[in-house]
Amino acid sequence: MHKVDIAYKCKNILGEGITFSKKDQTLYWLDINNTSKLHRFNLINEQKDSFEIPEIVTATSIKSENEIILVSNNGINLFNTNSKKFQRILNVENKLLHTRSNDGASDVMGRLWFGTMQNNFDKDGESIPIKENIGKLYRVDKDNIITTVEDNLGIPNTFVWSPDNKNFYFTDTLDGNIMKYDYDVETGNLSNKQFFANFDRGFPDGSTMDTDGCLWNCRWGGSCLVRYTPSGEVDQVIEMPVENITNCVFGGKDLKTLFITSAKNPGKNQHELDGSLFSINLNYQGLEDHKSKIHLT
After folding, report:
1. Range of 229's domain?
2. Domain-embedded: residue 291
């Protein structure tokens, strides 16, 4: 049994987009809404702060010590944590009011990958049903060329690569299957799409990878985390104290602490820990998230 600790009782509406900077031992994650928040948590001095962002911001990728790439409903943005300047870099689906961004991450070459979906927030920030598969999977190369990789998606999630960078893992949460692709490091092209894994509790949300090549997947509505072996077999299931588990990343000096975001439950089964940041100390070591190398001009 793994002990699940409460790292921060932050009461996020929709905690997501978590990443970790090993250099300065700092976690970043988002609380997604029409006006979102970027949270920052330094593990050394335990200082916590947050920044209000005036858009639906859903994914993060560290650019430099004080700069972080934020994917929003209007495109790709740069946020400086010192000056608090929020700057648009690229417009993506910015004229489509019925879509928003979702999960994303950078690959080993610094390309930015992210997905879009039907906007499921009303004007008051309340959740509305997702009825259309109008989302897309995008790749932004270092020269800022944007490529549509897939379309007709419901909720794009899980942007992780194998330790040798030969495979890419991705899921459409509404479909329920985690998929595996062959990944060309030099070109960023995907091929040989095939089924990787499924599970009978909840829906697949965000994921991270460990050095053994095992994928850790958060289960939305499933109150658990699942570790899959490289062959897609369920290795273990970790029970969580809340229902909606959204995303995770390895952090700490040895990258052996798993940090997990969560979201509130709009239904009847609400819990006082909904939206908290959790942590689990493990005997597994994670892979550090790649940094973004896309151009800023």
Report:
1. 5-281
2. no
Q: Which of 152, 148, 208 is nearest to 178 (CA)?
A: 208
For 187, phi then psi, to 5°, come to: -100, -20
Residue 38 inside a domain? The answer is: yes
pLDDT digits (tens, 9 = 90+) for 227-286: 999 999 999 999 999 999 999 999 999 999 999 999 998 776 789 999 999 999 999 999
Question: pLDDT by residue (tens digit) across 151-178?
Answer: 999 999 999 999 999 999 999 999 999 9
Instruction: Check 103, 107, 205, 210 and give the catalytic one.
Output: 205
Tell me if 292 is assigned to some domain: no
Is 229 domain-assigned?
yes
pTM value surpassing 0.90: yes
Domain count, the chain: 1
CATH (domain of 177): 2.120.10.30
**103 is known as an active-site residue:** no
For 159-212, give the DSSP string: EEE-TTS-EEEEEETTT--EEEEEE-TTT--EEEEEEEE--SSSEEEEEEEBTT
Give the pLDDT confidence of 102-121 residue by residue, as tens digits: 999 999 999 999 999 999 99
